């Protein structure tokens, strides 16, 4: 595959900042209302849009990825009625934010070729950061007495990690094409 189609310029960061906030709102709404596959009915759904924070992080920058994951988690938990202040604001929000931050730090499409090896590295990064997130969130839920640790690891892993390792590398190239058509002059990642 060729180099990415989005150039990184020295311009302002308003475009990726605004887009990351919009993506965070979309993430929260999609997680709350567009997860048709119930892993544990009424409790854990297969979060088919879990790829959004790492995708946004890679496309728009690590801060944008963190904003998408963190705010998306807060919006989702408020809409789904699962908001727990200590868990949602600290553990869940920060750890899901990291699923957008880490890939955004490691991968910049303006400075790399998106070939098969790059896409496999993106998938491997999503696997590792997703596993760390699932461990931390499961530990928090177990500490709060909500779910047993290993039970949470299994179901949250299926819920979040699978869509991240499949969706992020699969959608990165089409998303770059969309960004290029929306902002042909390029933008500075945030």
Automatic annotation (TrEMBL):
It comes from the Bacteria. The chain crosses the membrane at residues 14-34, 55-78, 84-107, 119-143, 149-173. Keywords: Membrane, Transmembrane, Transmembrane helix. This is Aminotriazole resistance protein. It comes from Hoeflea marina.
């Amino acid at each position: 595959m060729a180099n990415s189609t989005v150039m990184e310029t020295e311009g302002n960061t308003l475009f990726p900042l605004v887009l990351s906030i919009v993506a965070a709102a979309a993430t929260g709404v999609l997680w709350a209302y567009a997860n048709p596959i119930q892993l544990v009915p009424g409790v854990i759904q297969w979060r088919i849009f879990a790829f959004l924070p790492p995708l946004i992080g890679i496309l728009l920058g690590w801060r944008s990825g963190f904003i998408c994951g963190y705010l998306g988690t807060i919006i989702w938990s408020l809409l789904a009625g699962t908001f727990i202040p200590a868990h949602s604001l600290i553990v869940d929000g920060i750890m899901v934010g990291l699923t957008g931050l880490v890939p955004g730090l490691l991968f910049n499409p303006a400075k790399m070729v998106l070939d098969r090896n790059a896409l496999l590295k993106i998938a491997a990064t999503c696997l590792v950061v997703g596993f760390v997130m699932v461990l931390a969130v499961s530990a928090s839920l177990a500490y709060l007495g909500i779910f047993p640790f290993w039970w949470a690891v299994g179901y949250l892993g299926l819920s979040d990690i699978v869509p991240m390792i499949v969706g992020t590398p699969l959608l990165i190239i089409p998303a770059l094409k969309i960004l290029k058509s929306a902002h042909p002059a390029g933008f500075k990642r945030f």
